Amino acid sequence: QVQLVESGGGLVQDGASLRLSCEAFGRTYSIGGMAWFRQAPGKEREFVGHISWSGATYYGDFVKGRFTLSREDSKDTVYLQMNNLKPEDTAVYYCTAQIGPDTVWGQGTQVTVSS
């Protein structure tokens, strides 16, 4: 089994940066791609970005170059660097890992951007 633990969320001002971390525990060798999603109150879950086992990345349309995914395999950790944050980025951010046909979810970390 694999468990995911997100960290790095918090309260920041408009225009600030944050780096979220997602550390995997357990059978991490079984992980394929990893991704981030977010969900704001009253809104549907939204795709943020994906990073493959080879490091290839792609992002949701709203990102527009503000967010960057990276991975540090020696630490079984994926990072989401978020720059120029806006109030509309306020949401709970979730990390996921693809293991064969299954998707494992983390517990989420809250990001709040004040105007």
What would you say about this model in short?
The protein is mostly beta strands. The chain is built from no helices and eleven strands. Helices cover 0% and strands 57% of the residues.
Sequence-ordered SSE layout with sheet pairings:
Layout: E1 2-7, E2 10-13, E3 18-26, E4 34-39, E5 46-51, E6 57-59, E7 67-72, E8 77-82, E9 91-99, E10 102-105, E11 109-114
Parallel strand pairs: 2-11
Antiparallel strand pairs: 1-3, 3-8, 4-5, 4-9, 5-6, 7-8, 9-10, 9-11
Uncertain segments are none
Mean pLDDT: 96
Strand content: over 45%
The helix/strand order is EEEEEEEEEEE
Radius of gyration: 13 Å
Describe this structure in words.
- The chain is mainly beta.
- 0% of the residues lie in helices and 57% in strands.
- It has no helices and 11 strands.
- The protein has strands at residues 2-7, 10-13, 18-26, 34-39, 46-51, 57-59, 67-72, 77-82, 91-99, 102-105, 109-114.
- The strands form 2 sheets. Strands 2, 4, 5, 6, 9, 10 and 11 form a 7-stranded mixed β-sheet that branches. Strands 1-3-8-7 form a 4-stranded antiparallel β-sheet, with no helix packed on it.
- β7 (67-72) and β8 form a beta hairpin.
- The chain is globular and about 40 Å long.
- It starts with a strand and ends with a strand.
- The mean pLDDT is 96.
Keywords:
seven-stranded mixed β-sheet; 115 residues; globular; 11 strands; mainly beta; 0% helix
